Amino acid sequence: MTEDTGKIEDTGEVEETSEPDVEVEEPVTEKEVKEKKEKKPRGNPLGFIFNLRMLRRFVQIGFFFAINAYIFVAWFHMPNVTKFFISFRDIMPSLPILAPLEAPFGAISGSFDTLQQTFSTGIFPFFTLGAMIIILIFVGRAPCGWICPIGTIQDFVTLPKRTKIRPSPSTEKELRKVKLYIFVVVVGLAVWMGIARATGTAETLEAALGMFANDAFAPLNPAYILFKVLALDVLWPTSFSTLWYFSTWGFALLQFAFVAIMFIISFWFPRWFCRWLCPAAYLYGIFAKESLIGIGRNPARCTPDTCNVCEVVCPMNIRIRRFPYQHMHSPDCIMCLDCKSHCPNDAIVLRFS
Ligand code: SF4
Ligand code: SF4
Ligand code: SF4
């Protein structure tokens, strides 16, 4: 897999081939990138702190707390900090991330979570949909890369691990379809429920769907499980809703097990939930694909035949070299800019078009 040069073997072919699953040993690649960077004169002596990767980590941590402002009250006894965060609640639109509406003292909710719940009440969510489309058309899926708490946790779980498993392009392509199937089921149920409520025939359907009636994705939504079920019902109960969870403790345990396993798997498969399972990712990708801000490669600097560092570090396992130099229109790009930070030739550029 690796050679003396430290390059990772890759054919560089652009077709979807039967490339075998490969375990990519990142230390070699990262070492090589580091060496190259060290040879370059440092423009910024504080580059270790003030760089894109660190900036993204700070933003991710900040939003993680903003979305879970209850932590400051519950654990640190700092109600004023909580108040500061929730003061944004009324002025912030939903963002294209995963964040449950029910999160106690959460400053931001996710567009997908809001859309789903609004649809199921029989109302068309004009504002949420409009805000979501505008954000995605401008900055693509940057909120996935910089804000979404579920993406953040996966990134931090992946951080200490220096090897990751990259499925072959054909396997990856098949696995990515799973989120489309989940999306169809979840949105289909929400619309069905909405129509039933609007026509006054929801009673039987509500009884049949049970906990899936108002938000079909919620029982398997890691954001809902962590920031609503775990936070409000278990760690910091404020209402009798806790009783419901104690009475259905078996199911809650299954939910926590699912979330725990999900994050453990991220250790080897970066952002696997985002790539394969998240139905919101499918929706956001539709509009983000043609976003105004995107990633491109400088053809004068990029050496795709001898280098694939950007693909190795990409948490979304995007075969960047398969795209045209000009603009990488990928519905899966989360604008994390890891490819830009690691490219040894500074060939990755931000495109505005
Ligand atoms: S794809 Fe990942 S980062 Fe984006 S909304 Fe889903 S969980 Fe969050
Ligand atoms: S963009 Fe950079 S990392 Fe990617 S193939 Fe080109 S030179 Fe290598
Ligand atoms: S292509 Fe670059 S910016 Fe997009 S997800 Fe991959 S590493 Fe991040």
Mean pLDDT comes to 80
> What would the principal axes of the Cα set say about the shape?
globular
Could you say how many structural domains there are in total?
Answer: 1
Largest sheet: 2 strands, antiparallel
Strand order across the biggest sheet?
1-2
Spatial separation of the terminal alpha carbons: 37 Å
Proportion of strand residues: 5-15%
Q: What would you report as the Rg, rounded to the nearest angstrom?
A: 22 Å
Structural class based on helices, strands and sheet pairing: mainly alpha
Number of helices: 17
In total, how many beta strands?
4
User: Which ligands are bound?
Assistant: iron/sulfur cluster
Short description:
Helix 5 (111-120) runs parallel beside helix 9 and helix 11 (222-235) crosses helix 12 (241-247).
Note down, in words, how this protein is organized:
This protein has 353 residues and is mostly helical. It has one domain (22-352). Helices cover 52% and strands 5% of the residues. It is built from 17 helices and 4 strands. It has helices spanning 26-39, 52-67, 70-74, 79-86, 111-120, 126-139, 142-146, 149-158, 169-198, 202-209, 222-235, 241-247, 249-265, 272-277, 279-288, 309-313, 338-342, and strands spanning 22-25, 163-166, 293-297, 348-352. The strands form 2 sheets. It has a two-stranded antiparallel sheet. Strands 3-4 form a two-stranded antiparallel sheet. Helix 6 (126-139) packs across helix 15 and helix 12 packs across helix 13. The radius of gyration is 22 Å and the shape is globular. The two termini are 37 Å apart. 40% of the residues are buried. Mean pLDDT is 80; it is low at 1-28. Bound molecules: iron/sulfur cluster (SF4) (3 copies). One iron/sulfur cluster (SF4) is lined by residues 97-98, 144, 148, 150-151, 273-274, 278, 280-281.
